[in-house]
Amino acid sequence: MDDQHIDPYTRQHRDPQPDDMTDQTQRYSPGVSARPAWSSHEGSTATPERWYEPADPVAATAAIPSTSAVSASAGPVVQRRGSRGGTGTVLASGGTVIALNASGALDRPAAAAAPTAASTGRTVGSSQPVTITESSATIDVAAAVSPAVVRITTTGTVDTNQGVIPETGVGSGVIYDANGWILTNRHVVSGSQQMQVELNDGRVLKGDVYGIDTLTDLAIVKIEATGLPTAALGKSDALKVGQLVVAIGSPLGTYSNSVASGIVSAKGRTITTDGNQTLNNLIQTDAAINPGNSGGPLLDADGNVVGINTAIAANSSGIGFAIPIDIARPIMEQAVAGEKLSRPYLGIRYVTITRQLADAQKLPVKDGALVGGGGPDANGPAVEPGTPAAKAGIKDGDIIVKIDGQAIDGQHPLDATLSQSSPGDLVKVDVLRDGKTIALELTLGTRPSGL
């Protein structure tokens, strides 16, 4: 299925017209039936233009030497891109589906990780082994999680050459707590003046934006309801490339609770979307994600939410992206606790070290986060004055190798590792400077909005 364009299609049926029918042969000629509405390119099912947003090119997988370092905080590593090209990313803002998590689900242990090759009939699960196939796993996941998936419809206004006109958007979301807490995408709810949340049982409730994430394209929505169905949360860090995943959502904002299956194509992807927003550490999947799926859950074979579907690559087939649930979990907990959504902040610009970057700059290590990566540029100094990093003594050219004992590498990049902490936490930072490892301590700040 084409991630960027989905065209309606028609099927024609023509009765056989054999030439050798005799008078004894009974002819059957059904009357001409009306062409179904969905077979036309015209009508209410046409995809609104706003669901296909322009986007910047997909980030290169290899790090770029010195000039690529433009990150301004402990948030995403922003790598400098070239001019717009034919390959970009499109936020799947048409519609999304929400998986609902039972009251206290944030504390529920996730089920065993999904098999890396479910179609082989491999035994999965730790408490009671169960042999599954890809088909049966998808059926079970759809049955278990669909009741927790919702459609979000927003209304607002937009300034045009013809003046201010109304605008409607449709997205998906996942209820992760039975008391009406919903996780979705920021671009689904951003700019909305009114919001309606349609539950799987047909109820339509008023929704309010509780908070917007300053690090990723995530948002928390609240509805006034209790006893809602929910989806369990999994562990995205445990995902394996090639593992079966299932996406549920409202593609095109029309086909609610649509189910698609695929695999984890890659992990740790970086993309740049419309508006120059850089998203890091994404899960790449070939499960069909279309405009309208945004905010809906990406699930493992046990029905645990492992990601939130967010974007598709323009001019591609089978290239979609989801935000790992491990990155989303901290703000989900903050919302349920009644706290303001916030992310930790170091106050540095850095680039993630790869083998190519290490070879190009003759670095002593192949993993870590290089502060600055080439010195100050138009985006400011490598270490912002007055920030936690500056107060702790972190300098341009330092290599951050560990945070609280966790090695910083391709599987555990700096921003994803820091996202598991909260503003105000005291953390130990190990940096490599002039061939020596220096242990520093700092108190994390609060990430400013707009970074």
CATH class of the largest domain: Mainly Beta
Calculate the terminal CA-CA distance, rounded to whole Å.
35 Å
Give a quick account of the main beta sheet: strands, pairing sense, barrel closure: 6 strands, antiparallel, barrel
Q: How much of the polypeptide forms β-strand, as a percent range?
A: 25-35%
Q: What is the number of strand segments?
A: 23
Order of helices and strands: EEEHEEEHEEEEEEEEEHEEHEHEEHEEE
- Share of helix among residues? under 10%
How many helices? The count is 6
Count of all domains: 2
Q: Can you give the mean pLDDT?
A: 76
- Name the shape in a single word: globular
Task: Walk across the major sheet and give the strand order.
Answer: 10-11-12-15-14-13
CATH topology of the largest domain: Thrombin, subunit H
Q: What's the CATH architecture of the largest domain?
A: Beta Barrel
Radius of gyration (CA) equals 24 Å
Poorly predicted spans? 1-88, 92-130
Class from helix and strand fractions: mainly beta
Please state the oligomeric state of the protein chains shown.
single chain
Protein model, in words:
The chain is mainly beta. The protein folds into two domains: about 90-340, Thrombin, subunit H, CATH 2.40.10.120; about 345-445, PDZ domain (Pdz3 Domain), CATH 2.30.42. It has six helices and 23 strands. The chain has helices at about 135-145, 185-190, 325-335, 355-360, 390, 415-420; strands spanning about 90, 125, 130, 150-160, 165-175, 180-185, 195-200, 205-210, 220-225, 245-250, 260-270, 280-285, 295-300, 305-315, 320-325, 345, 350, 370, 400-405, 405, 425-435, 435-445, 445. The protein has a six-stranded antiparallel barrel with strand order 10-11-12-15-14-13. Strands 4-5-6-9-8-7 form a six-stranded antiparallel β-barrel.
